[in-house]
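Typical record is below.
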Amino acid sequence: MDIKVSVIVPVYNVENYLKQAISSVINQTLKEIEIICVNDGSTDSSKAILDEYQKSDDRIIVVNKSNKGYGAACNTGLKLARGKYVAILESDDFIDAEMYENLYSLAQSYDADMVKSAFYEFSDGIGSSKINWSEQYTMPDKVFKLEEYPQFLYFHPSIWSCIYKTEFLRKNKITFKEVKGAGWVDNPFQVQTLCLAEKICYTDTPFYNYRLTNPSSSSNIVNISNPFDRSDEVHAFLEKKQIRNHGILANLYKREIGYINKVLSGVSDNLFDFACKKITDMIARMDSDIIFTHSQLNDYEKYVYKSCKSYNGIGSLMRQIQENCESIKIVSC
């Protein structure tokens, strides 16, 4: 079979959601796919579920390995991928049946390095709601490069609402950072793919259902260092590639200021000094001219930037944020 899309499914202790995820892949209208399920040392019934599915569909490949984290599991899948394009499905999510047929058709039409779609946020007991980027931003209707639509770096990384040309990833040596747990490794992967792609396609039609109601979701801040460490890696990549486009940087700054808000909304008292050091280092790297002159940064974000110039300013900002939201304590670094 000529494999068009290799679907990588990193799996770790998702017995409550795994059947829905795998069923949504095997029922794709695009049949020329392989499904690479990387069981990252699950201790629940995930392995048994994968074994059952593998018996019924010879497109499914199951790799069992010791627990090394989301990034290592994805890298295992990338090494094995034989398809012209690669996709990632997180094993607590699910996709509409036409997703890969539609994205692959776009990829073929434009010989795209990557194709990205809108997506749904899904909550158990409530259902799906489309992320409407197009209501706030002018979105591309043709092949583009990131410099033309840099807002994609402000959006949720959503690396799973895409397909990537396998040759493009390998040529540019794009892989995942390997750290413990999920580790926010989607951030540098997203930045590298978007920055290095010569041909990007976007469709405003959503296909991917991103589950918000899994308490173990990879988007939660479990370790306070994660957003800052990944930011360090992103900027090291930009410096290495000499990428200094103001639109790209402004949108990254906007997202990083959002991460500062998220950390300060829930940081525990014993980690405040540690958080302050991470925040001041992040702020010090930002170009103040871009912060204060680029239209992408709003007044509140400029206020956060100024507040985070000092220890006292960060403390005052934290109190303001926590007074206005229900905080979830972050207890690990």
The chain has a mean pLDDT of 94.
